[in-house]
Every structure is written in structure tokens, then in C-alpha cells.
Amino acid sequence: MDRVDPYLIPALDGVAYGLLLFVVASGLVLSFGVAGILNLAHGTLYAIGAYVAATLSDGSWLALLLALAAGVGAATAGGAALSGMLAAVPRGDHLTQALLTFGVALAGGSLLVMAFGAENLPVRVPATVDRPVDLAGHAYAGYRLVFIVVAAALALALHAVVNRTRAGMLVRAAVDDPDMVACLGVSPARVRLGVLAASGALAGTAGVLGAPIIGPGPSTAATVLLLSLVVVVLGGLGSVGGTLLAALAVGEIQTLGVALAPTAAPFLLFAAMAAVLAARSHGLIRRWSPA
Amino acid sequence: MKWLIAPALLAAVAAPWLADPYTTATLARILVLGLVAASVALLTGVAGLPTLGQTAPFAAGAYAAAHSSSVGVVQLLTAACVGAAFAALTTPLVVYARGVVVLMITLAIGELAVTAASRWRSVTGGTDGLAGMASPRPLWGLPVLDTDRARYLYALAVVGIVLCVVVLLLRGPAGMYLRGCRDDEARMRASGHPVNAYLAIAYIAAGAIAGLAGSLLVTTQQYLSPADFGFDIAALLLLGVVIGGAGSVVGAIAGTAVVLAARDWLSGLLPGRGPLLLGALFIVAAYALPRLRFRLRSAVT
Fold it and tell me: In the record, which residues are listed under signal peptide (chain B) (predicted)?
């Protein structure tokens, strides 16, 4: 027990971090898997949510709810706007899509810095959970425990939506065979709009709720984009469960990995990616290469 | 476009005598990034693997060169070998994927390489960077490259030689195989060609070219920091390649020159608003380029 003890807190942090990445990355999985769009502005949508949270939060639950509504609204609108901008680009033209979304990310990041300044902003969490909780003899930030519960509920809800609702059925069908979905009379333009808006909403939710964990600052968008990309690479596009597992793994590498081997964490991410991709190189990856 | 090459080459050789040292150093940096862009064009345009990750072997080569000998040839070879080795290690990540998946994986590789570069302080100096690298001599017995003009001409010579080799190789069967893999992979497989092996060779060769460019970066800039290999650089390179006409290795250098010139001009235009204007440039280019290319193509045929 003594040997495990010092790593309990990083491990729990890893769960919080991983669940946060799960919410962001599932937005990326949506836009990537369903619409075939590599949205390089996804991290910027997260940053919008985080900045809204930092601006509105004053330590009350009402402010958090207000921030959630405003942040999710703004990020959803951002996703929908991206879908509008991408409408003129043909579906298979990945290079142009990447250039366009990168331009949006660059300009958007610059506008956010202009509006909110170049410093990392502090985020206040509701006062009732802004205190350490005693956990097996360790003090642990109360907000993170709440976050873990909320994010786990979000993951369950997402799983239910994808597997049990008509919209989720459409999403799964569009991942498997977009042409057949189009043939069956579902407009690809509407699917893209819905998917990018939903993806924005997920990024915005993660941004508002996760702001105390990955706070708003000039480098937030890039960090979040990179980590969620790694999650998508690791988890594939097959299932919510795969994304969740990958996100938890990346979260643990980023926290527990850093605690155990401080310099090796980026290399560990490399190694995890290499191992997973090498293992599935002949089987699974064929299925999720759209070309 | 062929008639443009001779005057452009003449201008490139004459440039250091016409321009001031600062401009010469800037031109040298454009050459270096142009060579990386050529490796991006080799993968993106010729082999059909769109990449945002060539900054990773570029960085590997640069840091290797910074720690290797002060003889240019040795430095170039070391950097090329390290770049190729990095590419060889990451090959299984890349060559089985296609299309936008490659874009995503290479982006992750490039970003992770930058993160690793900023953490591995003993080799890379962390985010402070490495400074004070001695200027190399190109070959044993030759004088040290101690002026901007000499360093520029050295970079020009190396880039010229590498480009000639690449263009000649691509004119032969190697280029045909790669274009075949890009245009009709199923048919290549059906005729018994090991497509993934071809792509792996192209990827490793592109890694070697990018690594070599890393050595030139050390020579021309004499300073290295993780910011030289950031995601924005990768995106700039991709934009340069797209502007240059994705299939053309020489066009990639021209495209990169245009993009870098536009970036420097824009950031001088409105100080502090550079990224905003650059983002706008990307958006405009994304809309304008396909139409422009289409018009060019219909004008030619």
C-alpha cells in the first residue's frame, strides 16, 4: 500500500484529465468519422468555452450554469459556422479542409488573445466544491471529483445517444457507409451541419467544465487539439468505448506517467500510438480509412 | 513554366551580391524550409500521403547536426541519416493509413516531436533552444562559412543538388510507381506491386531530405528552438506545397517562398496582428486555390 499511496492522487487526476479528453475527443471523432473532416479548429472551440467560463465564473452555481449555456452556445455556433465555411469545399478535398480549418484556428486564436489578453486566465469554481476533500488520507480538489462524476455521466449519455437514438443510428450509418446514407435520402450537407454543431457543443461543454483543469490561455487550443488527436488515433472511430479507453490511457500517461517518469511522457504517447497502430495496421485501420 | 527556371536560378545565385546580409539570411531560411516543403510535396503530391509531420524528421536532423562535426558533409549525412531513422521508426504509423487519416497521424507525430524537443533538455536545450553553433566548413580543408553570403551559397548548392537528384529519380520508374500508388492503388496491387513498401521507401526518403534540411537550418540560422518546428510551420509548408501545385517538388520551393514572403510582409504590415492576417491568408487560399488551379488547368488543355 505504501508504494501505491503517493501515486493515488496523480492516478485520480488522470481519470479527470482522461474524461475531459474523452468529451473533447468524441467531438473530434464525430466530425472526423462522420463528416470526414479533420477539424484543426477543434481546440479553438474548446478554448472559446474555457474563456467564457473564466469570464463568467464568480464562484456560484448560477454563474457556472450561465457559463455552460453561453459557452456551449458559442462553441455550437462556431461549429455550425465552420460547417457553413466548409460547404464550398468538396468532400474528398482533405488538404483544402485542413488549410481552411487551420486558418480559422490561427485567426480565432489570435482574436481570443486580442479579446482576453495573452495570460492564462484563472477560473473560479463554485464555492461549495472549491475545497479539498479527504480521500484515504489525501486532500483532493473537490471540483475534480464533481467533474469526474459529471463527465462519466456525459460519457454514459453519449453512449446511449449513439446506440439507442435515431440520430445515433444515423451517425453510425454515416461512419460505415456515407454514400449509402446519402442514397437513402439524408442530405450530406445537413449531416455535416449537425455533426459539426454537435462536435462544437461537445468541445464547448468540455471547455466550460474543464476550464479549471486545462485552463484558457494562448496555448490551450494547440494542447487540446494534440491530445484529442492522439486519443482519436488510439481509440479509432469504432465505438464510444474505444474513445473512452484511449482518453483514459492518455490522461493517465499525462499525469501518472509524468509523476513516475517526468521526462518520458511525450515519448510514452509516441510509444502508445506506435503500439496501437502497429497492432491494428492490418485489421482495423482498413475499416477506418475513408479513401 | 520551364523557361522560368534558368532566370530564377540566375537570380538565386546573384541574390547575395545584390541584397543586404539580413535579406540574404532570410533567403537562406526560405531555401531551408523550401527543401522541407519539397519533402512534403514528395509525400503529399507524388505519393499521395498528405502530411503535416515533416517538421519531425526536420527537427531530428537539426538537433543531430547541432551535435555533430563541424565538417558540412559529415553534418549533412548525419542529419539525413537521423531524419531517415526517425522516419523509419514512425513508418508503421503512417504507411498503412490513407487520406485524411495520414494527415491526422502525421500531425500528431509532428506535435509530439515538438513536445519531446522542449522536454529533452540535455539534447535540445528545452524551450530556451540551442545557440552558438560554430559555422561548418563544407569539406575538409575548405574555409569556414563565416559570412551570410557563404552560408547562403552553401545552402543553395546543397538544395540544388538534392532537388536535381529527387527530380531525376522521380522521372524514372520510382516516380512512376509512386504516382501509380497515388492514382490507382488497387490496380498497382493487382499487378503485384508492394504498395506499402514503395510508400515506406518514399516516407523514409522524405525523412532523409527533411533531416538534411535540418542540418542546413543549423548552418544558416545558428540557433535552434522547438518553435522552429511548430505546427504553424508544418501548416505553412503544406500551404506552400498546395500553392506550388502539390505534385511538383520544384514548385513546392516557389510556393514556400511566396508563403513566407507573404507572412513576413503581413506581420510587418500590422505589428502584433500577424497570426490573424496569416489565418485570413489560409482561409482565402483555401477558397481561391482550387478555382485558380482549375482555371489554369482548363487554360492549358
Answer: 1-19
* Chain centroid to CA A91: 23
pLDDT score of B60 more than 80: yes
| Per-chain mean pLDDT for chain B | 83
Contact by Cβ (8 Å): A151, A19: yes
Q: Is B281 on the interface with A (CB under 8 A)?
A: yes
Q: Is B275 on the interface with A (CB under 8 A)?
A: yes
Rounded Cα–Cα distance for residues A38 and A50 (Å)? 22
Instruction: Please say whether the beta carbons of B108 and A226 come within 8 A.
Output: yes
Helices (H), chain B: 5-18, 21-41, 55-66, 72-94, 100-119, 121-124, 148-171, 173-183, 185-190, 195-221, 231-243, 249-269, 274-300
Q: Judge: A266–B275 Cβ closer than 8 Å, yes or no.
A: no
CB B71 within 8 A of CB B90: no
d(CA B103, CA B199): 15
Instruction: Give the pLDDT confidence score for residue A222 in this predicted structure.
Output: 85
Task: Name the residue in chain B with its Cα closest to that of A96.
Answer: B286
| Rounded Cα–Cα distance for residues A150 and A146 (Å) | 6
Say if residue A46's pLDDT is above 90.
Answer: yes
Chain-chain contact of B105 with A233 (C-beta, under 8 angstroms): yes
CB of A200 within 8 A of CB of A27?
A: yes
CB B286 to CB A89 under 8 A? yes
Buried b (16+ CB within 10 A) or exposed e, A54-76: bbbbeeeeebbebbbebbbebbb
Chain B positions in Cβ-Cβ contact with residue A269 (cut-off 8 Å): 112
* Helix, coil or strand: residue B223: strand
Residue owning grid cell 457507409: A177
Range of the domain at A245: 5-287
Tens-digit pLDDT profile for residues B191-242: 888 888 999 999 999 999 999 999 999 888 888 888 888 888 888 888 888 8
Adjacent-strand bridge partners of A235: none
Residue of A nearest to B239 (CA): A99
The whole-angstrom separation of Cα B105 and Cα A233 is 7
**Beta-strand runs (E) in chain B:** 130-131, 223-224
Distance between A269 CA and the closest CA of chain B, angstroms: 8
Q: How far apart are the first and last CA of chain A?
A: 51
- A contact test, residue of B283, B284, B293 with most A CBs within 10 A: B283
CA-based nearest residue to A14, from A227, A208, A219? A227
On whether any CB of chain A is under 8 Å from the CB of B52, the answer is: yes
Tally of domains within chain A: 1
Interfacial B residues in 238-267 facing A (CB < 8 Å): 238-239, 242, 246
Judge: A270–B112 Cβ closer than 8 Å, yes or no. Answer: yes
What count of CB pairs under 8 Å joins A to B? 148
Q: What is the per-residue pLDDT across A244-288, written as a single tens digit (0 to 9) for each? A: 888 988 888 888 887 777 777 767 777 777 777 766 654 344 444
pLDDT above 70 coverage of chain A, percent: 91
Helix, strand and coil percent figures for chain B, each rounded to 5: 80, 0, 20
How sure is the predictor about A206, in pLDDT bands with cuts at 50, 70 and 90? very high
Q: Which three cell numbers stand for residue A282?
A: 492490418
Q: Do A285 and B97 touch (CB under 8 A)?
A: yes
ipTM of this predicted structure = 0.79
